[in-house]
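Tokens help. Our protein:
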Amino acid sequence: MELRSHDFILHSTIPNLKTLIPIFRASTTLLRRRITVACVRASAEKETPATALEQPGGKMVAELVGAFNQLTERMNYNVLSTSSSRILFKALKISIPILQTLPLSPDGRSPLSKALTVAVLLADLQMDAEVIAAGILREVWEAGAISLHEVRDRIGTGTAHLLHESLRVKKAPFGAELLDDDNAAAIRRFCLTYYDIRAVVLDLVLRLDMMRHLDYLPRYQQKIICLEVMKIHAPLAHAVGTYFLSLELEDLSFRYLFPSSYLYVDTWLKRYEKGSKDLIELCRDHLLESLTMDPLLQTIVDNISVKGRYKSRYSTMKKLLKDGRKPEEVNDVMGLRVVLKPKPDVDMTEVGDKACYRAREIVLSLWKEMPNRTKDYIAKPKANGYRSLHMAVDVSDDGHAVPLMEVQIRTTEMDMLASGGTASHSLYKSGLTGPEEAKRLKAIMVAAAELAALRLKDLPSVYHNSEIHQKDRVFFLLDKNGDGRISIEELMEVMEELGAQREDAQEMMQLLDSNSDGSLSSDEFESFQKQVDLMRNIDDRDEQYKIMLEEKLPIADESGLIQIYRKELSNGVAVS
């Protein structure tokens, strides 16, 4: 056979293939390494949104987006207009970079944390955007970093007005030396009559925030502040309908003014625990399960809500000392409220009444009713229209005496009327005025709220006729020209307002722009928002765990180990 030259060359090399295998393997390994390096470099040019959180400008935007979402998620979606969103967004853009540069507050908190805590409280109270913006800007303004004229020009007249009003409320004569009962009542009446009621609520929230962090002050100063709060601010909070503010202000004042008495009451209320669940939670779960499983209620009710509460420490102390009752005779220390939503029917009132009486039968099948403690305000409503069933039941099951449980049963309509129709009653009950003047002050409060609502109605915009999802609000606020995308110029503008560099905007755009078209779609920006929410939720959960562990593990803190760890942790996570 005739061999061609290339056949000979191939044949002649075959015996030497064994010597070439190691070389081939080495070449393959080198090639794989080069491919891996190239992939890493390519991925570095297109990082995940999480990396944007570590970029300097990205941290600023993340703080802005996270704070805005945290507040708007707490506000009533139906009244969160486009104009309201803009006011909040502008206030945060102005405040965040300034607050991050201010020194720590005397209580050891960062000014940004303090401002956002106040804003969240106001959002939970369903205050409007102007009040929340004023709460955010208050720290900035008091630091001299912004003037009222700048607030008016950059955010709006309403927010500037509230800041000015809050300063007037702050300067009101609340000195403890003036606080006999008559003077205190006169000051409360003055506050409701001559100040914007929203500025009064802002001042109450600021007072509550201060009361939660009094430990750094000398003992005598704590007592002076608490006397003012007990005489002026707690009744005032009740008067304007912010009941949870009133209760917490009373309890905090009670704790600082009478620490020994507070300890007795607090310890007594905390005794009612079974395992890891307290008594109210156990009773609540038991009652809710029984109501939900009832065949009759299933046919006439759409939804069942059962909420539990302990009477406040201060109110409990008054019942025990002022009324001279024994502990087991205080029948509203613990309470459950059942709210039933009837199915749509020709006569919903009749169906609602039937559901309430059926719920009462179920309650009586679970616990023993106390005689002479039942009040039927459905059959015989109060003069102001209040309707509900009230009863006191014995929930003890192990032979130990526990306070009676007060149970209230009502429909959703009855509950709304009870909540919305109490303003005049609360003004009168707080010892502010007589009944007629209480009605006049209520009219002033309603007028102020209506005026704010009119001012904050939606203005015409490109998004006015479309439904805006909660998570899209930040996107639309950044998309100023309304083309459905965030351009590099729009991103640069907001980052410069936050104090970041233009290069940060370019880097952030590169990290988030997954399809490399030079702009951000709503989906691309939403992936960034999800990372922001995740990080903030983890931080919030860590704070909750810390508080729980401080209560359950006091010995570790006394040994000094916690303080050492905190120091090491803060050094380790300090942002450079």
Summary: The mean pLDDT is 75. The radius of gyration is 32 Å. The first strand starts at residue 273 and ends at 274.
